[in-house]
Design brief:
- By secondary structure, the protein is of the alpha/beta class.
- It folds into 3 domains: 70 residues, Arc Repressor Mutant, subunit A (Orthogonal Bundle), CATH 1.10.10.10; 103 residues, Periplasmic binding protein-like II (D-Maltodextrin-Binding Protein, domain 2, 3-Layer(aba) Sandwich); 95 residues, D-Maltodextrin-Binding Protein, domain 2, CATH 3.40.190.
- It has 10 helices and 14 strands.
- A hairpin with a 2-residue loop joins strand 9 and strand 10.
Amino acid sequence: MACLSRSASLAQAARTLEVTPPSLSVRLKALETRAGTTLVLRTTRRLSLTDAGAQLAATAVDLLERLDNAEMALRGGQSGFSGSLRIVAPFGFGREFVAPAMAGFGRLHPALRCELVLSERPTRDQEGAADVVVHVGELRDSSAVAYPLARNARWLCASPAYLREHAAPHAPSDLARHRILGLRENDEDATLWHLERDGTTETVRLKAAMVTNDGETLVRWAVAGHGIAMRSAWHVERLVSAEALVRLLPSWQLPSADAVALVPTRRNAAASVLGFVQHLKRQIAAHPSSIHWTDRESAAAAG
């Protein structure tokens, strides 16, 4: 239930738990039978928790965090960590979230040598050579244990200058008439966008006018009026508040690009690794941004 609460689909949860989707479905049905109520609502593209499911998931998360804290204390967390810790993360998310968290963790454990490597493709290039790989977006073919960090809402945005010259889209189909700015990362399809509202999903294939592999460049293009961009809410919400960008189609939800920490194996992970993962999770939750929004909260905010 803790994993399902942070997953966009049953398939994603199954990958995190390293089981097959049918196996997870059987386990979920058995749990619902024991509880005597429905815990999860499933659609073809998304899952959501019922009120009973959300309550059970919150309890599960609390219990797991207590267990992690107790385990870390037994393995040396109380006296401070030592040795080395190598973290790999994508550029934008790494600068915004991982770097400050690592700095704070290093102050708490001065005997620990910390190294942060920022990479364009951290999962593919660095997973075998790091203690923790922070991954954002759809996770494919990883043998590591995935610790969920946060749900990561994504928005469509354009500048006021662009919208003065091009009428704002009112439906996903209108996007085909606009200049699209594409971001190519994690081998995702940069021009196939899925938008959902009220249980209905619309998929649009777009032709990008400009494409980059750097999120900061993408946002600068959007601010300069070059077109419409899809970007994580944490990256653009301050620009939206400052009216440098305008959020488009706010009643439509884009698939979240969830953030996870990949650890080679839980059994062999050093206490410092598990300690850092928990520290990073807490720092993200305290960040003044939309990174930790659930789908329900982001939908309510969109109004």
